[in-house]
Design a protein that fits this description.
The complex is a heterodimer. Chain A is α/β, with parallel strands linked by helices. Chain A has 2 domains: 4-247, Purple Acid Phosphatase, chain A, domain 2; 252-372, no CATH class. Chain A has 8 helices and 19 strands. Chain A has helices spanning 25-48, 68-80, 101-104, 266-274, 303-309, 329-333, 338-351, 355-372, and strands at 4-9, 53-56, 85-88, 111-113, 120-124, 129-133, 157-163, 165-166, 178-179, 191-195, 201-203, 211-214, 230-237, 240-247, 252-259, 285-292, 294-295, 316-321, 324-325. In chain A, the strands form 5 sheets. In chain A, strands 4-3-2-1-13-14 form a 6-stranded mixed sheet, with helices on one face. A 6-stranded mixed sheet of chain A has the order 5-6-7-10-12-11, with no helix packed on it. In chain A, helix 7 runs antiparallel to helix 8 (355-372). By secondary structure, chain B is an alpha/beta fold. Among the domains of chain B are: 203-284 and 677-755, no CATH class; 293-338 and 609-655, Helix Hairpins; 399-532. In chain B, the strands form 3 sheets. A 5-stranded antiparallel sheet of chain B has the order 2-1-4-5-6, with helices on one face. In chain B, helix 8 (199-284) packs across helix 18 and helix 13 runs antiparallel to helix 14 (469-518). The chains are: A alpha/beta, B alpha/beta. At the A-B interface, helix 1, helix 7 and helix 8 of A face helix 7, helix 8 and helix 21 of B.
């Protein structure tokens, strides 16, 4: 067969919300624009490298947030890539459900959307490729559909695509469309394009030579998705499948940890942050500075003021104050004074609490000790 | 712990200096800037080190470390020898400075025991804290008394506050109130949900607004889905309508074909009709100029002529009958002609009135007569009943009153008799008493008389030997005189007794008379009762009462009898007058009158009068009717003749002989007109249907249309009757109207679809994307959570501090009380016997002399100072180790004291020095003198 080049991407999450990352909406808009730009870049790359296929393995957008504008954007982009066959396997965030743009909008002819929760195949004789996949109809899918993947005809190249969860994958992520590599092995599959997990990785497949890949997310969506993000470019010919990762992300998320034990002035904190300029962050970085260690009770961090002074250093600066006061509460508790009694009482209450209540009580202890020590009460 | 000696290697201006301290009071004297504070800082530094007390992890130096770096380059540090509470001596060697930090603790044997002590995470060895039980911060605030603390005391309030602060926080300058105020300030700055300008409420409002915006955006999304459904539904409707419109077009063509079939059929029928009408017109032969318009007039005139003839005959018959009735009425009226006058006037009415009055008076007279007879019978019966009664009861006496008076008299006599009986009994008692007194006087008189002769008799018998004669005579005379006196008294008593006896008799007579008088009327009643034959007085009284009632009734009956007689006389005269008037009136119409036939005659007169009036009216009516009928007959004859003349004239004008012939000519002319009009109408209808084309052309068009529409539908023939099961076939207008309606609906649906598409396209204009709102909402919620947590934390801290403060006051005050009392009472040398510290740290003392409890603020300034120092040392005892007493450093505590006040305060130190080591740093020259005088150690720098 003649070589066929394809692009594999997934989890674009157009119109996603960054509310979980604590960034303001003005930056959220920029990030959403960046995701669009990344997706546009992927399709441009597909045209540039003369790819015959673009495989979008789910979560192209978020159904409950997607805007008509984004639908228009997608249609425009797909129309621009008119010579490329685009396959979409809807995922748990963009299921082929009632009201979904997949159903409501008229998509260009080069776009094929898998609209059933069962494997269906599309023959592409001009490319010598058969694309098989399924799409979510709801925002959940617990059935192990890969067990129902038929043995595909051994008459050409078989590409399988879906939004699915590798049961051997990372913990903590919801398991939609669960599968194992064994479910795919032995079914004449050359390449399996998956989406759902945001890390780009290949799923180990000891069963046969089928390559099973998660393309990863093209643009990071939160602090836990730091570092460069991208998509996969693959080529299939008689010699097999060759896959290459390419970076598409524009804005990086980074977390900087600063130990404050030796600081007694705000300037020291500033210096500690700015010395990482150009290395850990730049003007396009969404930076979270995590302050740790024991904090001199006389040091007034005034994070808002610090933030203002560092505002031009990066795209977003977010403080995560994880310091603890450098006060020996056990020692204070030993005092035969009101302060000692107060700390003893608060220590008892803290010991019998947890979660938010514990945090509240720890703050109460700190504020009380500050006040009883004659210091200003500085709120965290 | 006792500081024994100190070797300052280098510390500020002190270099290689050695100091030795006594266990008790030490006074370090130096002029200003002489190094007192330096030495004090050295001692604290050697004890507690140079790291900041409030940090346990960081190695952060105290601010003084750089300030006291030796001036001359000597080694920065020193050595301190101390004796611990258990008697062991320990050497502490420290090197100060950021880089040179070092500590060595050695026992007296030279063994290094540094590792025996706990270390903080920043490396600080907790030597002094281990032994003294208080951390560095507390040592500095409690064990060191600074000049500013003492000089700052301006009054009792300040002392009390400082003691309260020190007892609670371990720092005189740090009050719980102040701490709470700081927390409250923060709380106020955050605000509450009732403070709209404060951050907390603003954060709440922002979260609520964003949540509402998010909800609105989500609702819009739901709405959007509905709009999408609408758009699709309308699209479906448009497709349906387009199909419907096509069907309507076909229906129009079919209707047109049906219409054309009917038209061709109609044209054929019209053509046949026109042919038949032409043939009939040729055979009819009527006059077109016959005056058919006169037919109606002719019919009217002939009808009127016949009607007038019938009427003339009827009027003639009626007129004959009326004339006969008039003659009969005149004859009957003449028989009752005398009643004509009576009928003309009003006397007839008065006859009836008089007769009715006469009858009424007769009835009244009968009634009066009957009443009189009944009253006479009743009077006779009453008289008879009175005659049968007892004479006593019937004599008219008021026996009831008499019986009532008899009872009242008896009751009055009994009451007076009882009073008199009481008086008599009293008099009898007095009479008996008087009799007993008389008898006693008489007995005494007899005794005295007998004794009067005894001396004389004894003298005589003795020969007046023992009793001389004069004595005997004298005694006898006296006794005789006494006897006479008693006799006189007895006589008087007898007279009084007799008077009483007379009085008793008179009273008894009076009582008898009263009782007799009271029973007089009773006796009279009893006599009458006996005479009447009644046994009981009650029966007699009842009979007397009945007699009285009968008499009253009899007099009433007699009065009514007299009235009845008068009324009967009046009625008789009125009745006679009526009779006379009636008799006169009846006589005028020839009727006789007697009381027995009066009613008959009056009725006869009234009946005749009524009859006369009827006959009179009938006669008048007949006369009028005869006159009217005669006039009507004459008028009818004239009208009949005129009508006959007009009929003849019309027939002559039309050229016919009779009215019937006239009518036949009119019918022919009308048929001629009808056929002509019908012929024209059919021709017009043909022209209208043909629309300028010929029948053959229409047949050609029909054939052509049938080719377009397809197989011909069954068109019902006009006379085929209703086809019950055939489908409804609309007309062209209906089909076209239906097609137009469908086209209109299609246009409306397309408009609606365009609007729906537009609405979908602009669904999210002016609505922020949900993602944006969620991001802002998350930030706002995070801020609100932070504020809420801080609010809660501050509230908890505030509440806990208040609670603990109250508890601590209640616990600390009694402890402090004992400590202060022990010290202060010793100082007061018996002036006071008790000290009380209350939970508010108010201090009270009880004076020994008066036993009075006084607030410390009323004591002298010197005494207040003593209390202050005693309290400070007491608090130091309370918070520090019990086994190793904490030394105290006093940095120029008395700088502002005058001499007497200084003396009093110094006494406290001397006294306290017996319990703990005191090191006083001063620049006042008199203090070393005083110290030497009290055996204290003086160190001059």
């Amino acid at each position: 067969m003649r070589p066929v080049r394809f692009i594999h991407t997934s989890d674009i999450h157009l119109d996603t919300s960054f509310s979980g990352s604590g960034i303001p909406s003005r930056l959220g808009d920029r990030k959403r624009e960046a995701i669009r730009a990344a997706f546009r870049g992927i399709l441009e790359d597909a045209r540039r490298c003369e790819a015959g296929l673009v495989l979008i393995a789910g979560d192209l957008f978020e159904s409950d947030r997607v805007t008509p504008d984004t639908c228009e954007f997608l249609k425009q982009q797909f129309e621009k890539a008119a010579g490329i066959r685009i396959f979409i396997a809807p995922g748990n965030h963009d299921p082929f459900a009632k009201g979904s743009p997949y159903r409501e909008e008229a998509w260009p002819d080069n776009v094929h959307i898998f609209d059933a929760e069962e494997f269906r195949s599309v023959e592409l004789p001009e490319l010598g490729v058969r694309v098989t996949g399924f799409g979510f109809l709801h925002n959940f899918l617990e059935e192990r559909l890969f067990l129902k993947l038929p043995v595909l005809p051994d008459d050409g190249c078989n590409i399988v695509m879906a939004h699915a969860s590798d049961l051997g994958g990372p913990m903590g992520k919801s398991k939609h469309g669960p599968f194992t590599a064994a479910d795919i092995a032995g079914k004449n599959v050359q390449y399996c394009a998956l989406g759902h997990y945001h890390e780009q990785r290949r799923v180990e497949n000891p069963g046969d030579g089928a390559q099973i890949w998660y393309s990863g997310i093209p643009e990071g969506r939160g602090w836990d998705e730091a570092g460069p993000r991208g998509y996969l470019v693959g080529e299939i010919d008689d010699g097999g499948v060759r896959v290459e990762g390419r970076v598409s992300s524009r804005f990086d998320w980074n977390t900087l940890e600063i130990a404050c034990d030796d600081f007694s002035t705000r300037e020291q904190v500033l210096d500690a942050v700015t010395q990482h300029r150009g290395v850990e962050y730049d003007a396009e970085t969404l930076l979270r500075v995590r302050l740790v260690g024991a904090l001199d009770p006389k040091l007034d961090l005034s994070l808002q003021e610090l933030g203002e002074r560092l505002a031009d250093e990066c795209l977003l600066l977010q403080w995560d104050d994880a310091t603890h006061p450098a006060i020996d509460f056990d020692e204070v508790a030993g005092e035969k004074t009101l302060r000692g009694r107060f700390v003893r009482l608060m220590n008892e209450r803290i010991a019998s609490s947890d979660g938010r209540e514990r945090e509240t009580l720890e703050r109460a202890r700190l504020y009380g000790v500050d006040a009883l020590s004659g210091r200003e009460v500085r709120l965290r | 712990m006792i500081l024994l000696r100190c070797h300052v290697l280098g510390f500020g201006k002190l270099s290689d200096r050695r100091f030795e301290f006594d266990p008790g009071l030490n006074v370090v004297y130096a002029p200003n800037e002489g190094g007192k504070s330096t030495l004090q800082r050295v001692l604290v530094g050697l004890l507690y080190g140079q790291l900041r007390a409030d940090l346990r992890v960081q190695r952060r130096m105290d601010p003084w470390v750089e300030a006291f770096r030796p001036w001359g380059g000597a080694e920065y540090g020193g050595v301190l020898w101390v004796r611990l509470g258990d008697g062991r001596e320990v050497e502490i060697r420290r090197a100060f400075g950021r880089e040179e930090t070092r500590i060595e603790i050695r026992a007296a044997s030279g063994e290094e025991i540094t590792r025996h002590y706990d270390q903080q995470r920043n490396g600080e060895v907790l030597f002094a804290q281990t032994h003294l039980g208080i951390p560095k911060g507390l040592f500095e605030s409690v064990a060191i008394v600074r000049e500013n603390q003492v000089t700052g005391i301006s009054g009792y309030e300040a002392i009390r506050d400082r003691i309260a602060n020190l007892a609670q926080s371990g720092d005189e300058e740090l009050s719980t109130r102040g701490s709470l105020a700081k927390i409250q300030d923060r709380l106020d700055a955050l605000g509450s949900d009732r403070a709209p300008t404060k951050p907390y409420r603003q954060a709440q409002d922002l979260v609520a607004a964003l949540a509402a915006e998010r909800q609105e955006a989500l609702s819009r999304r739901k709405q959007f889905e509905g709009w999408l459904e609408d758009r699709d539904r309308i699209s479906g409707e448009i497709r349906d309508l387009e199909r419907e419109l096509a069907r309507a077009g076909t229906a129009v063509l079919a209707a047109r074909r049906r219409e054309m079939i009917v038209r061709v059929r109609s044209l054929k029928e019209l053509d046949q009709d026109l042919g038949a009408i032409g043939a009939e017109l040729e055979g009819l032969g009527g006059r077109a100029d016959f005056p058919v318009e006169g037919l109606e007039e002719l019919d009217r005139l002939t009808g009127a002529r016949e009607s007038l003839a019938r009427r003339l005959q009827e009027v003639g018959t009626t007129r004959s009958a009326a004339e006969s009735a008039l003659a009969h009425a005149a004859s009957a009226r003449s028989e009752l002609l005398p009643y004509a006058d009576l009928a003309a006037g009003s006397e007839a009415d008065r006859i009836t009135e008089w007769f009715v009055t006469y009858l009424g008076l007769s009835l009244q007279k009968d009634g009066v007569q009957k009443t009189r007879q009944r009253l006479a019978a009743e009077a006779a019966a009453v008289k008879e009943r009175l005659a049968g009664r007892s004479p006593a009861a019937a004599d008219g006496t008021d026996w009831q009153r008499l019986a009532r008076e008899a009872v009242e008299d008896e009751q009055e006599a009994d009451r007076q008799g009882a009073l008199l009986a009481g008086t008599i009994a009293g008099e009898k008692v007095r009479r008996g008493e008087a009799g007993r007194i008389v008898r006693r006087w008489r007995l005494l008189a007899a005794g005295c008389g007998a004794l009067a002769v005894v001396p004389s008799a004894w003298g005589l018998a003795d020969g007046f030997g023992r009793i001389p004669l004069p004595y005997a005579v004298g005694i006898g005379a006296v006794l005789a005189a006494v006897a006479v006196l008693f006799f006189v008294l007895a006589r008087r008593g007898s007279v009084a007794a007799l008077d009483l006896e007379r009085s008793i008799r008179a009273l008894e007579a009076e009582m008898t008379a009263v009782r007799e008088k009271g029973g007089g009327k009773r006796k009279e009643l009893d006599a009458v009762l006996a005479a009447s034959g009644f046994r009981k007085l009650e029966d007699f009284l009842a009979a007397a009462r009945q007699c009285e009632l009968d008499r009253e009734r009899l007099s009433g009956i007699e009065a009514r009898l007299a009235e009845t007689d008068a009324q009967a006389g009046r009625l008789d005269s009125e009745s006679e007058e009526c009779y006379r008037l009636l008799k006169e009136s009846l006589g005028k119409v020839g009727l006789p009158c007697s009381p027995g036939s009066l009613k008959f005659q009056v009725d006869t007169a009234r009946a005749n009068l009524r009859r006369f009036r009827e006959l009179d009216a009938r006669h008048g009516g007949c006369a009028v009717k005869v006159r009217d009928l005669a006039a009507e007959h004459e008028s009818l004859e004239r009208e009949y003749r005129a009508t006959c003349a007009r009929v003849e004239a019309m027939l002559t004008d039309a050229g016919v002989a009779s009215a019937e012939e006239f009518r036949q000519e009119c019918a022919r002319r009308r048929r001629l007109e009808e056929l002509t009009e019908r012929q024209a109408s059919r021709a017009r209808e043909f022209q209208r249907l043909a629309e300028g084309l010929s029948l053959e052309e229409w047949e050609g068009k029909l054939e052509e249309l049938s080719g377009k529409v397809g197989p011909e539908e069954a068109v019902p023939a006009p006379d085929a009757g209703p086809a019950r099961f055939l489908p409804y076939l609309p007309s062209i207008a209906e089909a076209e109207a239906e097609a137009a309606r469908t086209a209109e609906r299609l246009a409306a649906a397309r408009e609606e679809h365009a609007a729906a598409v537009e609405r979908v396209r602009h669904a999210f204009h002016n609505v922020r994307p949900v993602s944006e709102i969620e991001e802002d909402l998350a930030l706002a919620e995070e801020r609100l959570n932070g504020l809420e947590m801080n609010r809660n934390a501050l509230s908890i801290a505030c509440e806990a501090i208040e609670t603990i403060s109250r508890q601590q006051q209640e616990v600390l005050a009694p402890q402090l009380n004992g400590e202060v009392e022990r010290r202060f009472l010793r100082l007061s040398r018996g002036r006071y016997q008790e000290v009380k510290v209350d939970p508010d740290f108010q201090i009270w003392v009880r004076e020994s002399e008066t036993g009075e409890l006084r607030l410390a603020e009323h004591l002298s300034r010197g005494t207040q100072d003593q209390i202050y120092f005693a309290t400070r040392f007491a608090i130091l005892d309370m918070i520090s180790s019990e086994t190793d007493r904490c030394p105290s450093l006093l940095d120029e505590p008395f700088a502002a004291y005058d001499r007497p006040r200084l003396g009093e305060a110094f006494e406290v130190l001397v006294s306290e020095a017996a319990r703990r080591q005191l090191i006083v740093f001063t620049c006042r020259e008199e203090l070393p003198e005083m110290a030497l005088g009290r055996g204290a150690k003086v160190i001059r720098l």
